[in-house]
Amino acid sequence: MRSKLVAGNWKMHGSLTENEALLGALRGGLGSAAPSECAVCVPFPYLAQAQRLLQGSAVAWGAQDVSEHAKGAYTGEVSAAMLRDLGCRYVLVGHSERRAMHAEDSPLVARKLRAAQSAGLVPIVCVGETLAERERGVTDAIVSEQLGAVIDGLGVGVFAQAVIAYEPVWAIGTGKTATPEQAQAVHTTLRRLVVQRDPGMADSVRILYGGSVKASNAKELFAMPDIDGALVGGASLDPKEFLAIWRAAS
Ligand code: PGA
Fold this sequence. Notes:
Elements: E1 5-9, H1 16-30, E2 37-41, H2 47-54, E3 59-63, H3 80-85, E4 90-93, H4 96-101, H5 106-118, E5 122-127, H6 131-135, H7 139-154, E6 163-166, H8 180-197, E7 206-210, H9 215-222, E8 229-232, H10 239-249
Parallel strand pairs: 1-2, 1-8, 2-3, 3-4, 4-5, 5-6, 6-7, 7-8
Helix pairs in contact: 1-2, 1-10, 5-7, 7-8, 9-10
Bound molecules: 2-phosphoglycolic acid.
């Protein structure tokens, strides 16, 4: 059985003061024996604060991006080993905002995933189609290319230590959530891609849904057989809302 994971993606939000309150509320709200996993992916400058405030709690922490390189003359980049140094468990790779605004293509996303795993991090690889692509009926082809680049480049075995997140671009930050049935259909496609290569992974690979997940729609999403949790943007900044989503997964 797969345990559910609810991961927050703070994006470029937060301050030392705001984070202190938010992380404290999460730590307190979760208790120590959590039935579902909970994680927050915070901006790089706040990783040390997350480590200090979450160490020993049931909340894991991680980053939102990582360099494909291990070390060297890469001004502005942050390596996977540095993230491990700060106690990160997770790192997002291939978020649609990075694919769109930083020209990250699927082969680069695969290289970042490999760099993350080499340092012992669990990458959360994000895939998803735009509204225009959905309207053209090419959703399956788009997510298959995005996930296929990882599977073809690195082998399906990487998903023993990686999480997939399906995030339709048209649902991110728009208040428009995919219906549970729309999400389930794409999750089925993604799971099939993994299982075709390794039937043994059918029950282990975790596939999160992301895109305007809120306390009010989480339960119906989590009721779908192939939705193993959520990647939560906006609602992860509100501890009440985020904890309610996590409870819906538990
Ligand atoms: P959202 O963002 O929950 O604000 O739609 C999700 C994400 O981008 O990970």
